[in-house]
Amino acid sequence: MHNDAPLLSVHITSAYTDRRTKGAVPHLQNMPPPDCLSVRLVVQRIYESSSRQCSYRLIVYSNDQTYRPAWFEALDDVLKVLKAGLPEFDGSLFSKKSQRVTAIVFADEVELSRAQLLILGLKE
Fold first, then answer.
1. Cα dist from 65 to 59, 85, 104, whole Å
2. Considering only CA atoms, which of 5, 8, 4, 3 is closest in space to residue 112?
3. CA distance 29 to 26
4. Which end of the chain is more exposed for a tag (fewer CB within 10 A), N or C?
5. pLDDT tens digits, residue range 16-34?
């Protein structure tokens, strides 16, 4: 069976705004494939006070399901994976400052296909 639909596409909901400028981010042109799931995508910075180092956790969940989180040792690693799974993703929304607190550095609702979930390293 031949399918002309793109393997990877992302549709960010109209509620997506740039929190720094308080302006709406332009809608992405790609429409979600029919197998997409509406999920909440969260990146959390975890500060380890004992080692004074940060790690990052990528979490995806919906009303029906939570996926096992993916862990990363550096913000650049998270951004690479997000860019691979979501080519239109704008990594400039992340703060590059090294802070000594655990915090959510990004959260938004997105439409992801099962293929994208695998690329992001997330499993049911």
1. 11, 20, 20
2. 8
3. 9
4. N
5. 344 444 444 444 445 555 6
Query: Which of 13, 40, 38 minimizes the C-alpha distance to 24?
Result: 13
Q: What is the dihedral of CA 11, 3, 122, 95, to 10 degrees?
A: -30
Q: Read out DSSP for 49-106?
A: TTTTEEEEEEEEE-SS-BPBPEEESSHHHHHHHHHHH-TT--GGGS-----SS-EEEE
Count of CA atoms in the C-beta half-sphere (13 A) of 49: 2
| Residues across the chain | 124
What are the structure tokens assigned to 50, written together?
């004992």
- DSSP at 116: H
